[in-house]
Design brief:
The complex is a heterodimer.
Chain A (H helix, E strand, L loop, with lengths): L3 E2 L20 H22 L5 H12 L6 E7 L3 E8 L5 E6 L8 H8 L3 E5 L8 H6 L15 E10 L2 E11 L6 H35 L13 E8 L10 E7 L4 E8 L3 H21 L3 H14 L6 E11 L2 E9 L5 E3 L5 E3 L18 E5 L4 E5 L14 H12 L4 H16 L7 E8 L3
Antiparallel strand pairs in A: 2-3, 2-7, 3-4, 5-6, 6-7, 8-17, 9-10, 10-11, 11-12, 12-15, 13-14, 13-16, 16-17
Helix pairs in contact in A: 1-5, 2-5, 6-7, 8-9
Chain B lengths: L6 H13 L3 H13 L4 H21 L5 H25 L8 E6 L7 H12 L3 E6 L4 H11 L3 E5 L6 H13 L4 E4 L8 H5 L4 E3 L5 H6 L16 H9 L1 H15 L6 H22 L4 H16 L6 H12 L4 H7 L6
Parallel strand pairs in B: 1-2, 1-3, 3-4, 4-5
Helix pairs in contact in B: 1-2, 1-3, 1-4, 2-4, 3-4, 3-5, 4-5, 6-7, 10-12, 11-12, 11-14, 12-13, 12-15
């Protein structure tokens, strides 16, 4: 196999960062102080973008082992578990997990985790990997193998503390002779302190990410069902990439005999809008359980929205689908939403004249469904106004361009039709800011 | 137990289905081959990959419309996704499998190479997050923060997107994660990959697992680009639409658009040609522009563009970029072609 390695490996010149400088000429001591400061600033820069805990720990090990010490281990604990990651000069990063309860509080690691104080341990020559001295700092035996060649050695365990809690420890090993003088310990404690704050940030982030992921699970576009005789294809882009959620939504539910498809656009963008899409989708799901008639579904959704005190408007289009023989029958009702397009087998494109009042505006809005029949290979395309309104160099994308692209693509698989539209849209948009965009294609296919 | 297959014939049959936009037949054919014992990787290697190359050629030679090309590509992607889903249902990666993220560069629509890379890595036991075509740069970094992957693999087919590839390499390395790049936007010697700061270059999908194996566990942030012209790359890239527009007007003022079929192709392709200037600047490789110009001329000639279009295009480009010294050197009419 042809492997080309490019780019530079993390090689930081750090020789002499720990060498005792006491008694050396002033110039050398100054040089070491300046090297240490430069090293710490490189560490800070290197860690600044690492927001995933494991990744940040690996970066710490990478920057420490080799340039500064011979071996290092990071321990993180969450009261339930102790998680270890260790690295020697040679070989990959090794990991281990132990129950937190199993750690001896009087061991070197246990003392540091309980008191938050730095612990220095001397491991004599001839001491083997199973020795109690070594186990005191490295309780996971599978991580001790890489320490056999470093004897005799000094091991230093420094607490990782933030927000008033010691949540982990950094253990480093160095062959005796180089050792750790008071100056070196202070330098390493400074290093550990900086690392501790960064690692703690990644832990806090992971926790809030987990909460956000659980809460937003139902707000992201859903996985669509498999329906016999129907192909579905979608495209979805949000305006605020950083929030990954938007005010456009779609949903399809039901079974092979009868199902409901809905697409909508909540005024507003981002998370706030996404929360409202969740409410509308839920209302549609509930309404469709009682009566799949799209006019009735929209009426119910309208009343649900009006019952909420805050003034919010939602455009939506709702369709009921039933397969009758080879033909897909659609009843489509709309509430202030762009009219869906139908791509016929000969490649011609028709607009479905479905119209009605925006949801959440009037108490007594009534909706009427339009009937559309799709032969095998014909497609009904629902979209939000983010598609025609997409800004370009001179003009918006526009309904004419949509038709032109769909006509040029002609009758083919729904995913190809959606992709053609999405590619043309992306070429039109380039890097410009845009509104939320959603496309849902429903195609009649062989069973 | 596999059955010997005449792959050339299979590719022809498959292309026939793609040309008609017939996903059912395409999927049926591939499922049949699966049934005969050919695994997903073999199908990619012998059928989907070669067919996709042919699709590109058919478009360049004007035998297929751009719509047919899109439809064909979408079908192959759907077929591969279906295969991947079916495989995933039968064998999930082990819970402690190393994770990797596979993505296309932002605005890149050629998803097949990335899908193939994802398949190769899945076959080697990796837990693969596949972000697909046209994924956003922010979405990629967010995903990296969430997953903390062993590596990110970034695919780019069009050299016009090299500036975006550079931005994404920067963003990923910022997280300490190694980033492997690949795809036809890069040269096989890895010069462009090295120039934009990638950790490694994957010349093919098949060797990618070994490549990931050999990566460092963590990497420092990408050093800033220092080669001459690097700054101009982002000026040209940011302004590429307006520059392309100016060049299109210049070309159409020079040659009369009698048969207007090629005009839309010219307008569609010019942003890529201008983008290739940015690509050449960011990747420190003048050949990017030469290839893009030569390619554009073939495409236009095959669409009956009048004689002199190529010359007008070069002149228009040189005029539009005259205030940018490094870009001007790349497109000067007397530059080595």
């Amino acid at each position: 196999m042809d492997v080309h390695h490019v780019g530079e490996h993390a090689q930081m010149p750090g020789q002499g960062l720990l060498t005792p400088a006491e008694g050396s000429p002033v110039r050398e001591r100054l040089q070491q102080a300046s090297d240490r400061a430069a090293y710490l600033s490189r560490v800070a820069r290197g860690l600044s973008g690492a927001l995933h805990t494991d990744r940040a720990v690996e970066l710490v090990l990478e920057m420490l082992v080799g340039p500064v010490v011979d071996w290092a281990q990071v321990t993180l604990t969450d009261r339930r578990q102790l998680r270890f990651r260790a690295r020697a000069l040679e070989g990959p990063v090794a990991t281990a997990v132990r129950p937190a309860g199993g750690l001896d509080p009087r061991s070197s690691l246990g003392r540091t985790l309980t008191t938050g104080l730095t612990d220095l341990l001397m491991v004599p020559d001839g001491d083997d990997a199973d020795s109690s001295a070594l186990a005191s700092a490295v309780p996971a035996e599978e991580l001790r193998g890489s320490l056999v060649s470093i004897r005799p050695m000094d091991m230093l365990t420094i607490a990782l503390s933030a927000r008033g809690t010691t949540y982990g420890a950094l253990t480093i090993a160095q062959r005796t002779g180089i050792g750790f003088d008071a100056d070196a310990v202070a330098f390493l404690e400074d290093f550990a302190h900086r690392v501790a704050v960064t690692l703690d940030t990644t832990r806090a982030l992971a926790e809030s990410r987990r909460v956000a992921a659980v809460l937003s699970r139902d707000l992201a576009p859903p996985r669509l069902p498999d329906l016999a005789g129907v192909e579905l294809a979608t495209y979805y882009r949000v305006a605020f990439e950083q929030e990954a959620l938007g005010g456009d939504f779609y949903d399809v539910h039901g079974d092979d005999t009868e199902w409901t498809a809905v697409m909508g656009d909540v005024c507003g963008k981002g998370v706030e809008a996404a929360v409202l899409t969740g409410r509308v989708r839920q209302a549609v799901r509930t309404g469709a359980l009682i009566d799949r008639d799209p006019a009735q579904v929209l009426r119910l959704a309208n009343r649900v929205l009006l019952a909420d005190s805050d003034e919010t408007f939602v455009t939506a289009v709702c369709a009921r689908g039933r397969k009758v023989g080879d033909v897909l029958h659609l009843d489509i009702a709309a509430a202030g939403h762009p009219e869906p397009l139908v791509v016929r087998r000969d490649g011609s494109v028709e607009q479905v004249p479905a119209s009605g009042t925006v949801l959440g505006l009037l108490e007594d809005s009534v909706y009427t469904a339009v009937h559309v029949e799709l032969a095998e290979g014909e497609t009904c395309l629902f979209y939000t106004d983010g598609v025609p309104e997409a800004p370009g160099l001179r003009a918006r994308f526009g309904e004419d361009r949509m038709r032109e692209v769909l006509e040029a693509t002609g009758a083919c698989h729904a995913s190809a039709q959606v992709e053609s539209l999405a590619v043309a849209l992306s070429a039109h948009l380039r890097d410009r800011a845009h509104d939320d965009i959603a496309i849902l294609a429903v195609q009649s296919s062989a069973r | 137990m596999t059955v010997d297959v005449a792959w050339d014939e299979e590719v022809e049959t498959y292309l026939g289905a793609l040309g008609k936009g017939d996903r059912t037949s395409a999927l049926g054919q591939v499922r049949g081959l699966r049934g005969e014992g050919h695994d997903v990787l073999a199908l990619i290697h012998h059928l989907l990959g070669p067919a996709q190359l042919r699709v590109g050629e058919l478009w360049v030679s004007d035998s297929w419309s751009v719509a047919q090309e899109h439809a064909a590509t979408a079908i192959s992607e759907a077929v591969l996704t279906t295969l991947a889903v079916e495989r995933e249902l039968s064998s999930r990666p082990s819970p402690d499998a190393p994770s990797v993220v596979v993505s296309c560069v932002e605005q890149e629509w050629h998803a097949l190479p990335a899908l193939m890379v994802a398949e190769h890595l899945r076959a080697q036991g990796y837990a693969v997050s596949y972000l697909g075509a046209n994924s956003s740069a922010q979405g990629l970094v967010r995903h990296v923060h969430e997953v903390g992957p062993r590596a990110v693999l970034l695919s780019s087919s069009l050299s016009a997107f090299l500036p975006l590839a550079r931005r994404q390499v920067e963003a990923v390395r910022e997280t300490g994660t190694p980033v492997v790049v690949g795809g036809s936007a890069f040269d096989l010697a890895g010069h462009r990959a090295r120039a934009i700061g990638a950790t490694a270059f994957a010349p093919s999908a098949s060797g990618v697992a070994e490549l990931v194996e050999a990566l460092p566990t963590a990497v420092p942030p990408a050093p800033p680009l220092t080669h001459p012209g690097a700054d101009e790359a982002f000026v040209v890239f940011g302004d590429r639409e307006a520059i392309a527009d100016e060049v299109a007007r210049a070309v159409l003022a020079e040659v009369s658009p009698h048969a207007p079929g090629w005009v839309r192709v010219l307008e569609d392709q010019l942003p890529h040609v201008v983008g290739s200037v940015a690509g050449a600047l960011v990747a420190d490789d003048p050949s990017v522009v030469r290839h893009a110009l030569a390619w554009a001329e073939v495409v236009l000639t095959n669409r009956q563009a009048p004689e002199g279009t190529g010359t007008a295009l070069r002149q228009g480009l040189a005029d539009a970029l005259r205030e940018l010294p490094a870009a001007s050197r790349l497109v000067a009419p007397d530059a080595a072609v």
